[in-house]
Amino acid sequence: MPSKTNVAGQNMIDGVLVTPLNRIPHPKGDILHALKASEFGFFGIGEIYFSSILKNERKGWKKHSKMILNLVVPVGSIRFVIFDDRPDSLSRGEFFELTVNKENYCRLTVPSGVWFAFEGEGMELNLLLNIANIEHDPNEVQNMELNEIDYDW
Predict the structure, then answer these.
(1) Is 79 a residue whose pLDDT tops 90?
(2) What pairs with residue 50 in β-bridges?
(3) Alpha helix (H) residue ranges in the chain
(4) Which residues contact 111 (CB under 8 A, 6 or more apart)?
(5) pLDDT (tens digit, 9 = 90+) per residue, 136-147?
(6) What's the half-sphere exposure (Cβ side, CA atoms, 13 Å) at 125?
(7) Where are the domains of the chain?
């Protein structure tokens, strides 16, 4: 299995973006930025949805042929894993792993054509926000069981 990468970006997957986000403290409740139309990584909005995941549960593998994901974790902690099997990619065969939470508040942009999965790490609610560039279309997504890609969870 190829080596995992860290948040510093060694062996970054081609097309994946990690964008630090502002979390503005406020005594009555923080303000959490997610995505602005003027930012690099904005590819339009087709739909926006939330997904929750319990601690130690995993969802994935999924690969979209058209959809670009912009993933933010406003609550809890989620570890994302991306695997690149695109034939012509410079990062073919590589994995990228990133945990997004209050301490590492950022947006993870996942390009189409790569596999991704994620795992809940927070004790209570782990909430993912996806700002997708197109509406969900079951004809443009592939699913695979977690054991079908050799990754050590």
Answers:
(1) yes
(2) 129
(3) none
(4) 14, 15, 16, 68
(5) 999 999 999 999
(6) 9
(7) 17-140
